[in-house]
Amino acid sequence: QAKEAGRNTLRFFDPVIQQRVREQSELEADLRRGLRDGQFSLRYQAQFDREGRAVGAEALVRWRHPFKGMVPPADFIPLAESSGLILPLGRWVMRAACRELKAWQLHDATRGLTMAVNVSARQFRHSDFVAEVEAVLHETGAPPSLLKLEITESLLLEDADEVIARMRCLRQLGVSFAIDDFGTGYSSLAYLKRLPLSQLKIDRSFVRDVLTDSNDAAIARTVIGLGRSLGLQVVGEGVETAEQHAFLLSHGCDAFQGFLLGKPVPDLRDALLARTLPAGTTASVLS
Ligand code: C2E
Ligand code: MG
Ligand code: MG
Ligand code: MG
């Protein structure tokens, strides 16, 4: 195959690429082992509404590598995608998140919160995806109406009709959708209107400089306005300062996620209980 030959040619002749290919294939083997040996876990980052009430959380995968320690998703998700390991990893994430979502229903602090799960394009396009989500919901007993899938605009670049059909199937199960990192991709407004979406998430890169960069401020306001006119909730992500929060709030943003309000944590219930308790009290006093 021409593609295979092309890759081998690069591998053979360019030492820099050769080195990089070696590192990548080691990391790929590590990923495979990591999946087998249970080195992955989830963190949950809460999302809050305009009144400051927790309304949901996003599940974020973490990998504890035996020698390298915590490897951030940015360093392994792309490789998981290109190698196809995102399929078993994505299945693991979906199952773990749905199990947790089910457990949340047992406690006042977490009952009714939505669980957002990141789904990569390759995972979503896999022919078994809908059936797998359905099976996981069934097996875990998680309420489908509280499961939200975060997809990105890149998903819509190819076979939009197929993607939309698949989204509708999931929507019928009760699952909802958010577009992640909105504004960084190439969404066509015509598609946006056809998608069964409930949320747009303003990318963190626009929130970061919203007070100092008038272009970013304009983008943030535009996304909020667009969301409003399409009847979608808009979530601001990467909110780190009270000023960013105030800006988004004053322009009509519906929900907020970021270090200012809460970091990703292993136990959301503990984090939410600690948040509402008076200073000096610990959550364990109440449980
Ligand atoms: P994302 O889905 O846009 O997730 C938000 C990222 O922003 C997370 O990074 C989160 O920790 C970080 N973040 C949240 N609040 C703040 C803040 O106030 N300031 C800053 N500087 N960062 C903040 P994380 O966990 O490193 O994940 C990075 C990306 O990796 C995610 O971006 C998502 O695209 C991907 N990812 C994470 N978990 C999964 C997963 O289970 N499956 C897939 N396919 N992708 C995942
Ligand atoms: Mg996300
Ligand atoms: Mg995002
Ligand atoms: Mg992102």
Q: Could you walk me through the main structural features you see in this protein, from its secondary elements to its overall organization?
A:
It is a single chain. This protein is α/β, with parallel strands linked by helices. It is built from 13 helices and 9 strands. The chain has helices at 2-13, 15-36, 73-83, 86-104, 121-125, 129-140, 160-173, 189-194, 204-208, 214-230, 242-250, 268-276, 283-286; strands at residues 40-49, 54-65, 69-71, 114-118, 147-152, 176-182, 199-202, 233-237, 255-257. An 8-stranded mixed barrel has the order 1-2-4-5-6-7-8-9, surrounded by 5 helices. Helix 7 (160-173) links the parallel strand 5 (147-152) and strand 6 (176-182). Helix 1 crosses helix 2 (15-36), helix 2 packs across helix 3 (73-83) and helix 4 (86-104) packs parallel to helix 6. The longest helix is centred in the first third of the chain and has 22 residues, at 15-36. The protein is globular. The model is unreliable at 283-287 (pLDDT under 50). Residues 58, 118, 150, 180 line the site of one magnesium ion.
